[in-house]
Each structure stands twice: as structure tokens, then as C-alpha cells.
Amino acid sequence: MFYAQPYTRDQAVPAPQPLHNARATLVGSSKKSRSPESRMEETRRQAEHRVDNFLKYADRYRLPFTHEDLKAKNNERKPSLKGKYEKVCTSLDKPEVASRPFSAQYYDQDGKPLFFYLGNRWLDDKESEKPIIDLGDDYDKQYVNRRYEDMKTGQEQGRKLAFDGIMGNALHSFHESTQKLCSALQPTVTGPEIRHDWSQDDNPRVMRYTVEGSDKQAEERKGVIHLVQGWIQQGQKDKGLFLSSPLVTSSKGIGEVKCYYNKTSMITATLAIMFKKLFPASYKKYKTAFEAGQWFETDPGPWLGRAIVYKLQGALHSDRKDFGPSACFPCGFFSGGEMLVPQFHAKFTYLPGHVCIFESADIWHKVATFQPSPHDPTRNGTTPGRISTVFFFPKDSYDILKDKEKGWGRLTNYGNSGELKDMIPQ
Ligand SMILES: [Fe+2]
């Protein structure tokens, strides 16, 4: 397809406002618990129960390497490594290669947690003390009776599914809140970069989609928004931490973001419970550093950063500038977009609301090609395409924050205005 207009970085092809004014993402039952505090408590209680079931009943696999092996290999920084993984991704990113929609837990050779996929499970598959399956070199083992087609066949036979990810209503509200934020702050793409595939689009800044019931085509801007409460300016670690630019560069910034954090807080709290139960040691570290760096009280944490990847295609990468595990999930209307993990030949179906929490600094990953679904104009104003939200903690920020007091970032402007001890009125 050829575009007559080239579209520059600043040219507006805006993300539209959703029709509803982005309701809060309610997870807990509004009937049982009415105040925001009790709803949050209910959300956390439900999340704990669901993660406990995930840990008990989801398939468990042992990988034939250690986390340290992966780190050592990545630190060699050999270009051939990426080439090797790219080949695996190419072999997986084909419609005829089956994907896995079923939840799974992956541990390294020493039993350390590496990767969790929170998708679907069979409700009747409640074998207690599920044995851990050694994958060895036979990665096909993770697909036995666990392909998307197996799920469809089982459903036709009347089997019921449990869901470990982000549930429907909460997910739809999250989509509305995210689109509203992106309509106010406008995501950008500055040029080719490692996480997003610039090459496969005929226009990397614009997504085009069809509209149901008409022969019209619509266009929408693509890009990324980085919300980080305490980020170093590029290559200037010695200058300390600042709020990332989308938070402050427009008159809408802080207000819109604060509201977005508030409206998405129950989903963030749900992810935090997953994180706490799946990576307890990392969670503890993040929480202390988050409390030192947190600027917005409406964000429950413990991730200091959030990247909203708005309708962009993914590229193969590892997040080596991040510290420890990150969490991500997609929302929107699209086909394709599976999560590919070449180090253990995994292809997860990765439907809206399916969650990945993993050691993303050391585990390479790529989102497979996706196509936006046709737009249904009778919907709530949310438009087609795929939006991914990544919750992460930059390593440089962690290094600065790990031994600081709670509230340090907000009270001292990240140390740029002195230290807490000097600010106590005499
Ligand atoms: Fe990533």
C-alpha cells in the first residue's frame, strides 16, 4: 500500500477519544464493597486467590539452563546471538505454527522463576502437586494438548476454562483509559529503535484499518509513551533522576497521567499481587525502591515505569537496561500478536488480557505480526489495533533509589533540591 502523505513525527493523526469518559477499572465487586478502599482490598483478595490457583494448577516446566547462563551469554553481546534468535522467531511467526493459550510456569535448572504466562487453564484440570516437566531439548513438550486448537476442541466438548489474566470488564475499562491518555498526550515514534519493528510497515507512524459496514478506511497514529517517575536523561546518570518528558511537556501531562494512574490502579494492584507471589525476592526490592521514587500517589506500584506501546509492531529484543522482571499484557482488537520467546521456542497466543511476567532483561522476546480488526463504530469508541502496556523498573533508577528513604523523590525532587535531612524545619 502506498501513502500519498509521508506523515512527519509531529503531524497529527490523533488517537481518538473513547466515547465513554474512561471509567475506572473495577476488579472487585461493586455490590459487596462500595468505598474505593474496600474495593481495592477486594481486588487484592481476589487476585491473591487467583494467583494461588495459577501456582497450584498451571503447567510447570524446567528449562535446561540457568538464569546465570542467560545473563553470561547476553553479556557477551555477540550479534550472532540475536541472529540465531531472530531465525527461531521467523520460524514461529507463521500462521501454520500452533500457539499456546494455556497458562504456564517456567523455572530455570536451579528452580528459580524465569517466565510466567497467565492465560487459560482447564477448570477441571486440578491435579494437585502438578509435577514439573523437564523440557530438556524437546521444546515440543510444552505444546502437547496445549495448542489453541486443543482449547477449541475441548470447549466444543463442553469443557470449561479458568482465566488467570486480566478479566473482561476491567480490561475494557483499561483500554478506554489508555486510549483517552493517548488521545491527550499523543504517542510518538522518533525513528527506528530496538523494540519496535520499523521495517515491516509501509508507514511506520500510521495504522490504517477498515470500518465495518462501509468501504471507508480510517487512520490512526502509532507510537510509544514512556511514563517514568524517576528516569535518567539519556547517558547522563550522574545528573540524577527526573520525571519522564510525557509527564511534564504539555499542560495536559501531569493531570491526565495522575487520573490515568488512578483509573488503572486496580489492574496495577492485581499485577503487583501476581508479581509478589511469582517473584517474591524481586518484589521486595522493587517495593522499597518504588516507595523512594514514587511521584504519583495514585499509582500503587511497584513498577516505577510504564511504557504504552500504541498500535506499533514489535521487534525482537531483551530489555537489558531494566532491572529484574517486568509485566505486560495487550488490549485492543487484532489478530496475530503472539508472544514469541526464542530461548525456549515458545509461542504464546497472548490474547487481550493474557499476562506475561518474566525476567525481560535476560529473556529475549518479540510480539509477532498483528493485523487490526475492522472497526465497529457501534462500540464504545475504542478503535482497532493492539495496545501493549509494559510495567518495568529501569536499572539506573533502581541503583539510585535502592537505599533512599520513602518519599525521597517527591520531597527532594530526586535529590536535585537537597536531601531530606536538610529539609526538616528547625
Ligand atoms: Fe520488552
From TrEMBL:
Superkingdom, taxonomy of origin: Eukaryota
- Residue numbers spanned by region Disordered: 1-48
Composition bias type Basic and acidic residues, residue spans: 34-48
Protein known as: Uncharacterized protein
**Whose protein is this, by species?**
Amanita muscaria (strain Koide BX008)
- List the lineage, top down: Eukaryota, Fungi, Dikarya, Basidiomycota, Agaricomycotina
